[in-house]
Amino acid sequence: MGTALVARHEISANGVSRVIVDAAMKVHSALGPGLLESAYKACLKHEIEKRGLSVRTEVPLPVIYEDVKLELGYRLDLLVSELVIVEVKAIEALAPIHQAQIISYLKLSGKSLGLLINFHVAHLKNGIRRFVLGTDWE
After folding, report:
1. Angle at 61 between CA 71 and CA 46, to 5 degrees
2. Minimal CA–CA distance to 98: which of 120, 129, 55?
3. Of 76, 83, 56, which is closest to residue 116 (Cα–Cα)?
């Protein structure tokens, strides 16, 4: 897909996911590992927007418990085109708790597709994990 703008009719969770991964690869190629998470988030947001998709950062995520909406401080790193959650990490290795975090965020948000991207790797393909919740994600 390159840096071309995404046509409106192409937008699906899967299509958005491909754009995000392409953008993350470009950011990682330019910056490499070793920076803070905040740097990767800002650059990834910029790169995704250059490709024509909307990106919201630090999106509040309430917990609904017994029909009560609780604002507990949970935040999505990036929400792309209101379809895909992106959690950005810059850590030595992803742990099961990071996978549990994105699965919980998918459940709480009602979104079906999430990407967990760890920029602190030599080759970014080894730092990307894709999570799908439910069957209505295309």
Report:
1. 135
2. 129
3. 76
3-state secondary structure of 58: strand
Q: What confidence category does residue 9 fall into, taking pLDDT thresholds of 50, 70 and 90?
A: very low
Residues 46-84: tens digit of each pLDDT: 999 999 999 999 999 999 889 998 999 899 999 999 999
Decide: 77 and 98 in contact? Cβ < 8 Å.
no
Domain boundaries, the chain: 8-132
Torsion sign across C-alpha atoms 5, 121, 14, 41: negative
**And the tokens for 128?**
């990307």
Cβ atoms of 81 and 34 closer than 8 Å: no
Per-residue pLDDT band for 135 (boundaries 50, 70, 90) equals low
Which of these, 25, 54, 19, 57, lies nearest to 41 by C-alpha position?
57
Other beta carbons within 10 angstroms of residue 13's beta carbon come to 18
CA dist 42 and 57 (Å) reads 9
